[in-house]
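step=encode ok
step=design start
structure_in=
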């Protein structure tokens, strides 16, 4: 479905171990100027908001990492993470 592809490719949310026990958010910053969406996982939801200047992630799931270029940022459960790009 197109919604699945949006989460996987544009928002960049994908599992790095079975059942999203760990996952990464690697947004495609070249796709859109601004984009916001939620990706359901077996254990909760990962919300990603991209603007021209920031990426914000809020997840109710443990085990995530935000990847922007060559930098990584841990995503803490129920803690909003905003990174200036």
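sequence_out=
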């Amino acid at each position: 479905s197109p919604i699945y592809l949006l989460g996987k490719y544009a928002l960049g949310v994908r599992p790095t171990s079975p059942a999203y026990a760990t996952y990464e958010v690697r947004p495609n910053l070249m796709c859109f100027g601004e984009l916001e969406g939620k990706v359901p996982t077996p254990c909760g939801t990962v919300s990603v908001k991209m603007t021209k200047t920031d990426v914000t992630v809020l997840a109710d799931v443990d085990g995530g990492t935000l990847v922007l270029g060559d930098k990584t940022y841990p995503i803490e459960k129920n803690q909003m993470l905003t990174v200036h790009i």
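step=design ok
step=annotate ok -> The mean pLDDT is 90.
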